[in-house]
Structure formats: structure tokens, C-alpha cells
Specification:
Elements: H1 4-23, H2 39-48, H3 58-61, H4 75-83, E1 89-93, E2 98-101, E3 112-120, E4 130-139, E5 145-150, H5 154-175
Antiparallel strand pairs: 1-2, 2-3, 3-4, 4-5
Helix pairs in contact: 4-5
Length: 176
């Protein structure tokens, strides 16, 4: 009688030998008459037939991401940075599509400051492409501050200015 340990080993050997025998005739490079001896030509043939990948192609395959160009070629991005260039930046993430400024005040003695976050919803220059939030911080003392989201004319004015500058950048790039 065969012990369970020996039965597992025998089963493994049978399965692996069947696997290796079935694959022996399908391994690439097995027949030198069929495959080119130049590795560059083999790689190109595999890529043309869709049997390979390139590292630069992984951006679209992982999570369905888009094509990311340099930030200098994105008109909305450049226009946004130009509009808020006087403010210190805390976080700028082009691939994540967000710009966050640091708290900004016009003078050191003021107990009020603002912070702006610009989120890019699309690369197209249109009114719903940007999600802009402005936060207001009022401090009585260094440790006693209240933060609130600001509403009013500032957000539409920022959006309008960014879109106008982006449209100018787009027009200039199409002329080139």
C-alpha cells in the first residue's frame, strides 16, 4: 500500500511531467528555422503581434490611467500655476491632478490667511475642468485658529482667469 506522502509525491511527478511534455514543443526558440536569430527582430515581432509589453505602456494598463505628458504642455496646469505663482505651494502633483498652496497672507501682522486647492477634472479647457476650493483661516492667537471654506467671487474669478490664460496658451501652441 502507498502512503499518503508517497501518493502526493507520485501525483506531483505525474502532473509536472505531463505539463513539461505538453510544453516541450511550444517553447519559443525551440526551432531555429522558425525564429530569427537576431534578438531585436524577435522582440519587435513579439511586440507587433501583441505578445510583449513595454514599460512605458504600463501606465495605461494599470488602473486604466491616461496618457500623461509633461506639465509644461498642459495649458490648464501652466495657467493655474501662473495665476497663483505669488503663493507658496505645499503639494503639486501633476499625475494626481492637484495643486495645494500653503497658507498665504498679504502681511505678517494679519491674523487672516487663505489657502487654495485646485483639482483638475479634465485636461480640456472648459468651465467644469477645475474644482477650486478656497479656505480662510482666522487666528486670535497662534494656537486658536478657525478654518472655513470661503465662498463668494474669488472662486469664479480664479477659474475665469485660469481658463482665459489657458485658452491663450492653447492658441499659441496650435500656431506653432
Amino acid at each position: 500500500m502507498i502512503s499518503p506522502k508517497n501518493l502526493k509525491t507520485l501525483f506531483f511527478l505525474v502532473i509536472s511531467s505531463v505539463f513539461f511534455i505538453s510544453c516541450a514543443n511550444k517553447l519559443p526558440g525551440a526551432d531555429a528555422r522558425v525564429y530569427d536569430s537576431d534578438p531585436k527582430k524577435r522582440v519587435q515581432k513579439n511586440l507587433d503581434e501583441g505578445r510583449g509589453f513595454r514599460v512605458q505602456d504600463l501606465g495605461g494598463a494599470i488602473g486604466g490611467g491616461g496618457t500623461f505628458e509633461f506639465a509644461s504642455s498642459n495649458e490648464l496646469w501652466r495657467a493655474s500655476l501662473d495665476v497663483i505663482d505669488f503663493m507658496p505651494l505645499v503639494s503639486v502633483n501633476y499625475s494626481g491632478g492637484i495643486i495645494i498652496t500653503d497658507w498665504y497672507s498679504t502681511d505678517q501682522k494679519s491674523n487672516e490667511s487663505i489657502k487654495i486647492s485646485i483639482r483638475f477634472l479634465t485636461n480640456e479647457i472648459r468651465s467644469d475642468a477645475l474644482d477650486i476650493k478656497v479656505f480662510n483661516r482666522k487666528c486670535l492667537k497662534q494656537s486658536n485658529c478657525t478654518v472655513s471654506e470661503k465662498t463668494g467671487n474669488l472662486i469664479p474669478e480664479l477659474k475665469e482667469k485660469i481658463l482665459k490664460i489657458a485658452a491663450i496658451y492653447k492658441e499659441e501652441s496650435t500656431k506653432k
